[in-house]
């Protein structure tokens, strides 16, 4: 076996290895030697061997066989061995290893060792890797050391106590009295440790916080001493006396003053003094100023002091040092909610930081700029943000785009500006916008009818320049399909009109269809738009017919289905084509909270191109549904289909509820034109029992037809689930129950469930209705029946 | 509190790692890889602060070594820069004009100095002089005990 070499030799050997393989070879040999040495009896080189092992460990090689050696070394009487042993324990053992428990006894003994350096080793190791059990075992020892020892040990015991409190929160009570008395020490190390310990205790325990509030005058005194005192070579850093202690005291003052007027008052003067007197030319001064600002903004400080603090942050923003600018923006971000006006004053500087080269600074500036957008500065801010979007790093694009959309939605000064902004974003960063942007934009466009001409012109031009940005192309195709006639008319108030022929328009759509850059969804948009144009243009209908029939054999199933349906529309249902492809009505804004069961009218989408999303019912069902409804419609009345409300494309959970009910819905649609139950007749309570209340509302909508709305509410303290209503009527009466709004009745009438029932009484018999109520309340199922004999409003 | 302190070279070799919170070996390796990737990729004149997971990373380059510390939400980053600087000063005082080789060949001493300056993720001693004094005394203690032990006992 080769003799083991001293540590330095080994390090040299490892470093001179030219390849990874060579290095591994050297290390394996050494580890073997070390293992052999460990097995031998005590020799003088134990500490060197362990040190070698630790070096190997640091390079990333396994060293777990050294754990027991660490335990043995710690128990050795020699200081050099103890030192390396404890170092090994801190590096190789952590609280997750079983071997760590074995050193508890050694630590205990060493804590009462006569030599302070041995004591300090034990304290350091306990504070580094002490598990909760070890901490519980040794806490009384630490408390003893906190009270009666020299300052060298006291400061270490204080931080060890901090670790113990972090591991075992209840032990905080044990250390509180000792912590209090430590504040009277003169030694900075001990003071610092005491402040950290008190901070930890106050953060964990509100009662301790109350008690330690009394120390605020003492802390203020200590701080004043540091600020005013002359030069002390030991603690001075660039003219600031012991910045570490100053920052910790400021942080403790922050916690103590947070919700307390008296405590905040006591520290007002001091904070003002520190804020004005601290030298801010070097980082260390700024560190203290920064902590001061954080404290001022967090406690109940007087307004003058707050203004001073925000001004300091403003000064930071103009600092040459990037770090300081970054810090300033982070702090301003935190207070932009509460001190909005103060932060607005510095808006210009913040916006300038958008142009900084540093990615972290840019990110902070972006977040802050978005928070500062308001109705008064929207135009200028948007200019800056759009400029930023065109040059920002790719990881910030999505955030910027969504931030711009939100801001535009909230503060848009005019519709046209809004649309322009969105278009600008789509052209610059179209690939990074979220999916719902397309339907949102479409909805926005339909809502501004006066700008249809302008919008379609702009989009057409955008389409001509670039068809790679999918969201933009999708919106453009949709608009051209809808408003192609306005495009072809050639006159527009808002923008310079272009002379566009029908062929040009169809060319552009065909380009989109054929381009390999277009996503399948986009091609769907284009195909549908082409189809819609068949009713809006006069000359080139044949061209459209041929395009549509070509795609009838497209490989893409989605496109093929559409093309086949449209073909059918050309051939068999040509008389309906005009009605089907009519201009879309205004889309109502569908908030995310609404469920589809809420609305009484089932939406019938008139061949609307929906973006293909998961969970959405497949498009082919729609035309089929459409046709079916039309058939019903033709049976029922001669009026063309006019849905009273169409849900926007974001309602992906749309239940295309079986064509069977669709027919019935149409009848309702034509008849019951008030979808919301805001009826003139009063609601009558028909059932009230066990906290469940059922009211009835009647509405006649035709000679024999009548809609009954049943509303249920729950006044109990517990929620009701699986609430269902069933109804029965006399034989000659036709009954149709709509989908209820839900089946969950929260407690104390927080929300209601409505159920609409449509009755048709052609024979005009005496109308009665029996309603069965079933629900689950507090785990048990309940059922009841009520007979309704009179229908007010009938 | 500081969660960990890492020293690594430009080539990605770890020179010192101090962990102030318990992690498994695997987690430690992942953290070290992430840190090296993040810090070494930074362009020269960027700010010294990063956001990583829920921690604030403060790093500073001294000659060929990167000093990288991870802080919690409430810690003062500018002060952390001062802490790193103070540690470098302590190393410099102890080794006399310290360079990376000193830290490589005397890594256990670098750890001992760190343990006199930081403990449990917090600053232990704020006086430059006191740390140096403690190190000297401990080193002397090491010698005397060794000398003592090498004397024949009987």
TrEMBL record, chain A:
GO CC terms, sorted: cytoplasmic vesicle membrane; Golgi apparatus; membrane coat
Family matches, as Pfam families: Adaptin_N (PF01602), Alpha_adaptinC2 (PF02883)
Keywords in alphabetical order: Cytoplasmic vesicle, Golgi apparatus, Membrane, Protein transport, Transport
InterPro entries linked to this entry: Adaptor_Complx_Large_Subunit, AP1_complex_gsu, Clathrin/coatomer_adapt-like_N, Clathrin_a/b/g-adaptin_app_Ig, GAE_dom
Any GO BP annotation: vesicle-mediated transport
GAE domain ranges (all copies): 679-792
Keyword Protein transport: yes
Keyword Protein transport: yes
Cell compartments where the protein resides: Cytoplasmic vesicle membrane; Golgi apparatus
Family indicated by similarity: Belongs to the adaptor complexes large subunit family.
PANTHER family on file: ADAPTIN, ALPHA/GAMMA/EPSILON
Name of the molecule in the record: AP-1 complex subunit gamma
Lineage, uppermost ranks: Eukaryota, Metazoa, Chordata, Craniata, Vertebrata
TrEMBL record, chain B:
UniProt keyword Transport, yes or no: yes
Compartments, record wording: Cytoplasmic vesicle membrane; Golgi apparatus; Membrane, Clathrin-coated pit
One Pfam family here: Clat_adaptor_s
InterPro entries registered for this protein in UniProt: AP1_sigma (IPR044733), AP_complex_ssu (IPR016635), AP_mu_sigma_su (IPR022775), Clathrin_sm-chain_CS (IPR000804)
Main location: membrane
Annotated keywords: Coated pit, Cytoplasmic vesicle, Golgi apparatus, Membrane, Protein transport, Transport
GO CC entries: AP-1 adaptor complex; clathrin-coated pit
Membrane topology: Peripheral membrane protein
Domain AP complex mu/sigma subunit: 1-140
Swiss-Prot/TrEMBL GO biological process terms: intracellular protein transport
Matches recorded under PANTHER family: ADAPTOR COMPLEXES SMALL SUBUNIT FAMILY
Subunit structure: Adaptor protein complex 1 (AP-1) is a heterotetramer composed of two large adaptins (gamma-type subunit AP1G1 and beta-type subunit AP1B1), a medium adaptin (mu-type subunit AP1M1 or AP1M2) and a small adaptin (sigma-type subunit AP1S1 or AP1S2 or AP1S3).
Family: Belongs to the adaptor complexes small subunit family.
Protein name: AP complex subunit sigma
Organism: Solea senegalensis (Senegalese sole)
